[in-house]
Amino acid sequence: MINDDQYILYGPNEEYFINYQSLGEYLLDCLRKRDYDDIIAVDPESEEQLTCGKLLEKSVRLATVLERMGVTKGDGIAIVSENNINYYIPILASLYLGAIFNPLNVEYTYGELKHAIDLSKPKVIFSSFISLRKILRLKEECNYINEIVLMTQSLEVLDNIKTMESALQNVIVNVQDFRVDGVGLSDHAALFMSSGTTGLPKCVGLSHGNFIGSLSVYRDPRYLNVSNDVTVSVIPFFHIYGFLTHISAVFCTLKVVLMKKLESELFLRAIKNYKCTRLFLVPTLLQYFVQNSKVNSDVLSSVKFIHITAAALGNTVYQAALQKLKHITVIQMYGTTETAGACTVQKVTDNINTIGYLVPNIICKLVNPNTHRTLRPFQYGELCFKGINVMKGYYNNPTETCTAIDSDGFYHTGDVGYYNENGQLFIIDRIKDIIKYKGFQVAPAELENLILNHNKVQECGVIGIPDEKAGELPLAFIVPKPGVKLSAEEIVKFVSENISSQKHLHGGVKFVKKIPKTSSGKISRLLLREIYNESIGQ
């Protein structure tokens, strides 16, 4: 619904009942009500399984262990690990206690980890083996870290390091008597790292209530309606999209085939062998599905839905997906870390490249990022959201919180989009990625979408490079398709023939072997800029 006086969009206004005091209490009750042998997650390499019964027992026992380690309500725990089926256990144990979990990228450098944990100050860190050396070094330097727990067993003997298994040994707890007490919906539940719209990575403080509101979208028949489904997921736990997908296996009847990282052959084999019914992907993975001949009807025969979020989806890839994956419904969503997940979901009947409509109890406005004036339909502006899912704020950072959330309570996303007369929303690009060429705004995603139409292009990424006269010049990094000859001139000419002059590749073309991406599959423009700087000797 659109308020024509103020140009504000409203999702369905519905009474919202939360029958639980916290997310931990809710998830604990979900596990108790389900069958012991219901499968939460499977490791496709080892075929090890985590069932509801095992997760219930281990999470309650670990909560007891954490209490003995001195973890109480409001204390932090960090998790630094690749995806694995043990990941669920410390998350749930933390939520039961009212502690605040902080999942971190296993690929972080020591400096990045130090920055993150200096913000969250965890008492206990759960680490995978590949991160352990960095975590041990951090413990020596940070007096607030009391314990390190290794997530999985190790063939190496490590003095004074508990493993998850050894920590749980000889801990006897009656899971039916266990209670979650003293934790409220407004209390912090988690800290997720986000760059926000400015500055160094910040800790996004999300409450128990934020998550309960967000997760309801996964159960709602009008939106995702995840039920009796199987998914194969490579999205990491530390990403809000991955977390919501994985944790929905606890309160929905979803089985997650959990991959440590993207290995194309294993990924496709798991989709087929486990009869995957629903996939949660990012645009670059959907592009891979469209372009790769190995992704065929045999592999995807059981898949009914593909959900897309985490970055703008170009219309070229979207239309190609509709053509190739005709038996699959492709549904786009939009959300951010700061909004604890989905704000919009595309309807199954939509056949245009939209991020959909607002979910219940969410309000949206689009504003001119310079004047902050609220915009009408079809005017490009910054997407801003308000509602039950919007973060408490950046943890211990009131200055950045005030910058991100305006006086009316709207979170400013830093994403550029627009809406039509029906209230459908569309996303264009990130404000901070917008290229300023002679006063014109050029969206890299728009150029990437165009260049992908070229029949010799496999992948591309676009950045702006500095120029004294113009401000910035659009530069394209190109990965040609295997076995073809492609010149920079061909790409420059192709773009100039298909788009307005200010959006031409005035910065030229560079050929690379691959486009660097983040762990969630987004194009890493930061790394592209580093590649450019190295090429000019900076």
Explain what you see.
The chain is an alpha/beta fold and 538 residues long. The chain folds into 3 domains: 227 residues, ANL, N-terminal domain (Rossmann fold), CATH 3.40.50.12780; 151 residues, Rossmann fold, CATH 3.40.50; 102 residues, GMP Synthetase, Chain A, domain 3 (2-Layer Sandwich). 28% of the residues lie in helices and 26% in strands. It has 15 helices and 28 strands. Strands 1-2-19-20-22-23 form a 6-stranded antiparallel β-sheet. The protein has a 5-stranded parallel β-sheet with strand order 6-5-7-8-9, with helices on both faces. Helix 1 packs across helix 3, helix 2 packs across helix 3 and helix 10 crosses helix 11. The longest helix is centred in the N-terminal third of the chain and has 17 residues. The N and C termini lie far apart (51 Å). The mean pLDDT is 89. Keywords: Ligase, Peroxisome. This is Luciferin 4-monooxygenase. It is found in: Peroxisome. InterPro entries: AMP-bd_C, AMP-bd_C_sf, AMP-binding_CS, AMP-dep_synth/lig_dom. It holds the Pfam family AMP-binding_C.
